[in-house]
């Protein structure tokens, strides 16, 4: 897929990025190369390939699921500006 100048300008506008006029052709070439790589990846036949969580079949070492900290909610709520019924009260942001 080859991108045109107008495509790069539209992408930059949608992403709210400022791209210098002199750089647009380079961006178009680089983005086209990326889209070409994606097209190559999509063309690969992956039927029968088992999904892997890790390329080396590594095993994740897990720690025991144990409580390591005490409940300090009451302490933290004492220094909070506003609380009610165990909840933090915050100012309304949206109408």
Describe it.
The protein is mainly alpha-helical. The protein has a domain at 5-42: Histone, subunit A (Orthogonal Bundle), CATH 1.10.20. Helix content is 38%, strand content 4%. The chain contains three helices and two strands; from the N terminus they run αααββ. A two-stranded antiparallel ribbon has the order 1-2. Helix 1 packs across helix 2. The two termini are 45 Å apart. The mean pLDDT is 91.
Read across the widest sheet, the strand sequence of neighbours is: 1-2
Overall mean pLDDT stands at 91
Number of helices: 3
Structural class designation:
mainly alpha
Task: Report the order of strands and helices.
Answer: HHHEE
> CATH top level of the domain at 5-42?
Mainly Alpha
Assembly classification: single chain
User: How many DSSP E strands?
Assistant: 2
Largest sheet: 2 strands, antiparallel
The appropriate CATH architecture of the domain at 5-42 is Orthogonal Bundle
Q: Keywords for this structure?
A:
single chain; 95 residues; Histone, subunit A; two-stranded antiparallel sheet; 38% helix
Question: Would you spell out the secondary-structure blueprint of this structure?
Answer:
Layout lengths: L4 H10 L9 H20 L29 H6 L4 E2 L2 E2 L7
Helix pairs in contact: 1-2
Task: Compose a concise summary of this entry.
The protein is mainly alpha-helical. Helices cover 38% and strands 4% of the residues. Strand 1 (83-84) and strand 2 (87-88) form a beta hairpin.
